[in-house]
Design a protein that fits this description.
- By secondary structure, the protein is mainly α.
- It contains 9 helices and 2 strands.
- It has a two-stranded parallel ribbon with strand order 1-2.
- Helix 2 (about 20-35) runs antiparallel to helix 3, helix 2 (about 20-35) packs across helix 9 and helix 6 (about 105-115) packs across helix 8 (about 140-155).
Length: about 180
Amino acid sequence: AVKEFGRALGEIDRSKRRTEVFADFCEMAYCALAKPAQPHTDQRDALEAQYMQAVARYRSKDDVRRMPAMMGLAMKTIAAGGIDFMGQVAAEIGALDAGLGQFSTPYEVSRLMAEMNLGDAASIVAAKGFITLCEPAAGAGGMMLAAADTLERLNVDLSDVWMEGTELSRRTFHMLYVQV
């Protein structure tokens, strides 16, 4: 799915780098997902305007029309679990900025770290009624996804989990929002 997504990125507006198309995809996906969740009309309108600004960067509207299929591929793959899809795509196409401390942690490493740190999660939930997790440099959310997968495997009800992720980069925030 990551390779298929990367190929699709390469077919959109060949005058742009794949990293630029990916950034636009992430921004449009974020706007599309965030807009219905906004309780205030002015916030929904701002997201719609942001979305349309991204759309306007493409001469061919056929390029923009390809993006919902890409969104479908991403959502289907993310929903299946066991992958940091957006992080893998970003790493594969060179969209991460090492100067900003952006690196891709392989999902398997994130999962191992989650398993090592969350082994007693069920007993914490039993004692407190909930568990909180904080990811101060969330990136695309790979560690958070691995934590959720691990908690599910440990039969922890995710409604008893409060997960908070912080991300400073706009691009990776969009990836995080889409995938987590």
